[in-house]
Design brief:
Largest sheet: 6 strands, mixed
CATH topology of the largest domain: Ribosomal Protein S5, domain 2
Radius of gyration: 19 Å
Structural class: alpha+beta
Number of helices: 9
Order of helices and strands: EEEHEHHHEEEHHHHEEHE
CATH class of the largest domain: Alpha Beta
Shape: globular
Number of strands: 10
Number of domains: 2
Strand content: 25-35%
Oligomer: single chain
Amino acid sequence: MSRLQTLAPAKVNLTLCVLARRSDGYHDLSSLVAFADIGDELALEPGTGFSLATRGPMAAGAGSPEDNLVRTTALAMQERIERLRIGRFELTKNLPAGAGLGGGSADAAAALRLIARANDLDLSDRRVTEAARATGADVPVCVESKARLMHGVGDVLSPPIVLPRLDAVLVFPGAPIATKDVFGNFTLVAGPRRKVRYEESEIPRERAALLDYLARDANDLELAARLVAPEISEAKDLLGDSDARIVRMSGSGSAVFALYENASLAKRAAAKIRKRRLGWWCVQTVLG
């Protein structure tokens, strides 16, 4: 079989609401998730055994092959499927780690897709979906990389939602943070901002209405994340001074996204950020 390739798109939480703390210590979340047209790249040369080579501008943040979620995914699939064909993976790491863009989860989901193709498995196969859940909370939503609502700890997904084109800029201010540290600062002492999950029927499908809807929402983890990484506030301030309709942190941070009326405004904003902060990761993209 010839070399297989796939994109592992960045995941962006357009909204994120923390509904409650669970008895197991985790939190029930509800979020509208979209995917960018940029991301990591993963290739597989099907064969025997497993190996992983990592390259790319963000390779240093990918960790060792033994700790990478691509390997975790391969092992989870091997546990469920006998005589599974895997082979040699090559990961081109373009997304920063610890940014709340789901890079590791997207890589794991990409590995699932490639392994499934190499073994003639359908992505709806129960063993594939179980391996996705076993690998990480954000992996299931990344398998098809389509906009959806995700609930619980990422285990409950809506059907895909067709969103209009959203011109965006993603900024990572060079301060990776761990999700556990963010939740360590988070409290629901004043009660949740929302008491119920987002519903598919409340998400506008027309662009202007969607932007208005998103502007009224929030990411509940933002304050807790800013306590860990104050650079988030700096990134928000710079993007807020760029004709953006919406500026918000993604996931548990520390990356920030901004949405614009058109691609020209997004391009201008990205150029401005790159000029002002030479060490930051900044890309213009389209979300959907």
